Amino acid sequence: MAIESPISSSGGVGPRTCDEKDAKALEFIQEMTKNADSVQEKVLAEILSRNAKTEYLERYKLDGATDRNNFKSKIPVITYEDLQPEIQRIANGDRSAILSAHPISEFLTSSGTSAGERKLMPTIQEELDRRQLLYSLLMPVMNLYVPGLDKGKGLYFLFVKSETKTPGGLLARPVLTSYYKSDHFKTRPYDPYMVYTSPNEAILCPDSFQSMYAQMLCGLYHQKEVLRVGAVFASGLLRAIRFLQLHWEQLAKDISTGTLNPKVIDPSIRQCLSQLLKPNPQLATFISTECSGGQWEGIIPRIWPNTKYLDVIVTGAMAQYIPTLDYYSGGLPLACTMYASSECYFGLNLKPMCKPSEVSYTIMPNMAYFEFLPHHRSFSATDSSSPPAPPPLVDLADVEVGKEYELVITTYAGLCRYRVGDILRVTGFHNSAPQFHFVRRKNVLLSIDSDKTDEAELQNAVENASQLLEELETSVVEYTSYADTNSIPGHYVIYWELLVKDPITKHPGDYVLTQCCLAMEECLNSVYRQCRVADNSIGPLEIRIVKSGTFEELMDYAISRGASINQYKVPRCVNFTPIMELLDSRVVSSHFSPTCPHWTPNRPN
Ligand code: AMP
Known about the structure:
This protein is an alpha+beta fold. The radius of gyration is 25 Å and the shape is globular. The structure holds adenosine monophosphate (AMP). Adenosine monophosphate (AMP) binds at residues 110-112, 175, 313, 315-316, 336, 339-342, 420, 422, 438, 441, 450.
């Protein structure tokens, strides 16, 4: 039975008719968003009653209460650091009901870090169903705007990452690795709207080269059937394009001969691709012709001519990649479909074909209990004067349009009033559920891929690296940084102004400065180092030495634009074009990390 979509699509292409499965999903969205407040009340009561006997809720004497007033007056708002002791006990094997009455099934390793290591987020088995539910809503919404997506395939570059075990034997791995390895994903029923070119065998291969090679090869084979191209984040899709630039010759050779690159040794990939690979010299010639000229502009629609949109997140830190994606895609629409984290999947974009700058995510009230800490810039963590007491938290249905909030969640897995660290601005409502623009993640200075480097980490890295200059009686007097995404993969650039006591005999040369680059990388957090070593998604760190006096010029420039001379602080990260131009015009030498820093999947104890 065909029905009319209940989701208003003003500003979009729809509404149009959709099939029964889609209709159910859209009705579910309507039901949840129309009753946002009562769904939230129910979710909180459900979480509190099932977890009433946990050590955590008993500690705060909730005494089985499941209402908002008791909850808000007794349970503190916390950060990951506050929960470290409980998390450590669970990791060490304590199976008692510490945070959750349901057994902790595994830890999800967040890209957010604490003391340089990924945060460990406890999760429970049934959370997989909740994640699956959110995924199941994405295509029904997309189908309202883009017709015919059941007539072809999606070329999605999806990867698993390494996993470890905690001392107590629980798995610790990223949320997507957990999802791709679950039966929910591996044995998903056939759905014409969700046919991917990448076989599970390729997605599940832990070696990133072999996985990417196989996924690209399959994408090229099915090039005419591909209707959408995607990856989770923009950086991932650009890595795939870079891979094509580097390996198209071998890929074309494989296609021409119907054989598989001997570097792909994973037996399950070889087995699975042996059924696909047939010599196709015509396709190989086409790919060679498109790739050999060194002309990469618009390469996506040239190779995959039926692509209707790119499915990648380009909100938040990923917005820096929009111009590059536009270059390779010839301006294809960019769809940001969902907003999620290791702690909890939050919600979806009900107008997925809108411009990236207009993306708003509707938080689904059934996913967790959501509260919002009003965010004022004057309360920011970097403010050294003691801030006023934080204002009370606001419920999901009560946030106000135009205001900014920090997201605080209470999850089924046992996080209670946990500060996620994301700053969101309310842009409007869908029924009674608010919609949010993702403003930024708190305290993130530099980000290229999933790495998030804060000011303290950068400072520590600079201090450590500059010790190598002590012998030369040289010090770093000022520094700033820049996430350079002009090349793929992007890399960190650190501008250093040096004070060299004896420029004639003790000027630091290239060797020592490249060692400084490496020393900085060794100090950065494990997510950064994993991106460098295992994923190759970040290039070698670069130090650019600027002429002495450059940072004074930077200050003069800021003051000429209205900054107060008393309050001026050197920005520790820059991306404003005139400032970049000023800095780059003063560069005297540049140096790159000569090798990869250390990284192993195992966490130090
Ligand atoms: P992780 O815990 O490593 O899964 O990272 C989750 C974080 O990624 C979120 O808290 C956000 O800061 C960021 N993130 C996730 N989805 C989006 C999105 N759609 N737009 C912007 N940032 C996002």
